[in-house]
Amino acid sequence: MRLRVFHRNTYRYDPPAAGVIQVLRLTPRNHEGQYVVRWRIDVSADARLAAHEDAFGNLTHVFSVDGPLRELSVEVDGEVETQNTNGIVRGTVERFAPSLFLRDTALTRADAAIRSFAQGIRSAAGGDVLAQLHALLDRLYEEMTHVTDEADGAANAAEAFARKRGLSRDLSHIFIGAAHSLGVPARYVAGYHCADEAATAPAAGHAWAEASVPDLGWVAFDPAHGFCPTDAHVRVAIGLDSLGAAPVRGMRYGPGAETLEIAIKVGQ
Amino acid sequence: MFDEMRGSGDAVRPAYAELSQWLAEVKPDVLDFRRREAELLFRRIGITFAVYGDPEAQERLIPFDVIPRIIAAKEWETLRRGLEQRVKAINAYIKDVYGRREILKAGLVPEDLVFQNPVFRPEMNGQKVPHDIYVHIAGIDIVRLDADTFYVLEDNARTPSGVSYMLENREIMLRLFPELFSRYRVAPVENYPDELLETLKSVAPPSASSEPNVVLLTPGVYNSAYYEHSFLADKLGIELVEGRDLVVKSDVVYMRTTEGLKRVDVIYRRIDDDFLDPLVFRPDSGLGVPGLMSAYQAGSVTLANAVGTGIADDKAVYSYMPEIVKFYLGEEPLLKNVPTWRCREDEHLAYVLDHLEELVVKEVHGSGGYGMLIGPKADKASIAAFRAKLKSDPKNFIAQPTLALSTCPTCVDEGIAPRHVDLRPFVLSGRTRTRIVPGGLTRVALKKGSLVVNSSQGGGTKDTWVLDN
After folding, report:
1. Closest CA to A55 of B165, B98, B55, B369
2. Exposed/middle/buried for residue A5 (C-beta within 10 Å: 0-12, 13-18, 19+)
3. B381, B446: one domain
4. Stated pTM of the model
């Protein structure tokens, strides 16, 4: 499937910012089932984008802008050719052995409730890791409500699990924490998802998880949708959690408030 | 019990002969007068430290004992060689852990101890640092058990503190006890700031000029070691900056000055990894510099110490140091490690649980003497409480035998009496060489029988005299 991605963040500063610095994780890489046909990032202010690669092999761009700045927009426009690989992720840039991804963070750490939930799945699904992960995916999809309003987000996996609802980000954190407690390496994926009625669907970035399965490698699971990612997903960045894979991490200099407006369109 | 003046018996050891005689000659009121004078001087300098969790005493004077601790030239030579070897191995290990990871492949250090460790920084993976030096400033805590046995108690490879006391203590002693110095040839420590500055300049990035701009980055006045930060910046003649004084543009770090921006080449940072850059580590950190890690990764600035060095001084990693020295240097370690039980391993945990009343149990990431159990000194209730804590999270603990630390004569209320001491020498690693100023910070447990030398728990300090020949 050929997907067109358009993503624009517009920041407004009042009073004007004295300066802004941002790290962008907004550029996908190629792997089996994903080929980036064209991709560009535009920053509305005069800034040099310095390209880096982060710890996990994500492409990053850093820029800084001097103020005074009332408004700043960061725009991504690109096209990606995708194929359905049934969730199996191959040909990615890997900087660490899968075992690194057993590492917990404050966002993914499983509490007693998530651990016992995961144990329940292990008892029901048996010793096969892939079966356990699919059971985890199914149970989360059945028992959790997927919300899309940012204001509904949870502080971490444990909080989202207790509330039985969360953003795709939160559900992915729960999935990762539960997988870790089963001894399965798992990590966070930030990207885009093309919904069926893309034109009308509320625009937002999407998140899912990948888990490392013996003899199979990394397999992607989308707990917000209850299935493995397909050719409707564009994989942009991975990390231990949403903070590590964040599309944008930035800082403004000077006092005052800022607002952020996000516009995302993913279509064919 | 080994006393550094009297050995195990009553014969005065040669290095202490003059001191012992002087102590016998000096009138108690003279000693007491000098003692009070020393305290006055410290108060005037304003050398204080903050005690965490003690709002009543925000700033406190660290007690200073006027009787010096003396180390013979030959003893120091043994220590110096051991320290140099140990820090060389630490640097090689950190390079490996963030690079090829040979030691993990060889199975000598368990992979999960590194990968699951919060102080391991994935961001450092594959990161090149100038001349492969990660730990430019190390503080290695040494304890002595008898005439010939020195143990490393702890490696401090992140932002070791205490060197200001080493310098201040010497200055005050020179002022108050010139006649005692005249009886000894004491190796100088006053050149430490010069050695440190040379070390920092030697690891400047290739982009720097022949006179690199070095700054000291402090978390600010609320940090317990702020006095030391300002003291060192002053002695080194470099700028003392906080995060807000630095700004990153196009992967270059600049310092804001009244004449505009000035490029920074080397940052002697006294701020923890977690707070360095809110765009990479804790997003709520107001102490760091946004974008610093990008500049660091681009190689335009050197951080001393490097990011992620905690993976070498973690107390669980400590137990592998003898293997680490052998693996990278192919040599037997010159300094001993205290035998350590790793509670992460089942057999070790079982042993520790069975012997809690005779062991010292420490948190892997603890410091300052907090959160530890000293079995022989603890009552039944605290042992029971600690047992529960240990069982619920064994990975977080290690255990060691209670060591009979050496004692040194110390001025206390009841007169001159032996008190337990340790030693923290500072090891500087630069481009071409390792520098160790002869001496270090001697900490002394002022309470009778106490083995806890931490300043936050009633410890004091002494001047450390390393003898020339």
Report:
1. B98
2. buried
3. no
4. 0.94
Q: What CA–CA distance (Å, rounded) separates A78 from B39?
A: 69
Instruction: Suggest the residue from A25, A43, A61, A100 to mutate for an interface test with chain B (most B CBs closer than 10 A).
Output: A100
A90 in contact with B, Cβ within 8 Å: no
How high is the pLDDT of residue B316? 86
Render pLDDT for A172-202 as a digit per residue (tens, 0 to 9): 999 999 999 999 999 999 999 998 754 445 5
Is residue A175 located within the same domain as residue A126? yes
Q: Could you give the count of Cα atoms lying within 13 Å of B156 in the half-sphere of its Cβ?
A: 22
Q: In this structure, what are the phi and psi dihedrals at residue B191, rounded to the nearest 5 degrees?
A: -80, 0
Q: Do A21 and B248 touch (CB under 8 A)?
A: yes
| B425 and B383 in a common domain | no
Segments forming the whole domain that contains residue B392: 342-401
ipTM above 0.85 for this complex: yes
Residues B318 and B361 in one domain: no
- Both tokens assigned to B115: 């990968």
Mapped onto helix, strand or coil, the DSSP state of residue B31 is helix
Start-end of H helices in B192-336: 192-202, 226-236, 292-297, 310-313, 315-318, 321-329
End-to-end CA distance of chain B: 27
Q: Does A112 touch chain B (CB under 8 A)?
A: no
CATH code for position B357? 3.30.1490.270
Instruction: Please state, in angstroms and rounded to a whole number, the distance separating the CA atoms of residues A76 and A264.
Output: 9
Residues of chain B with pLDDT under 50: 51-58
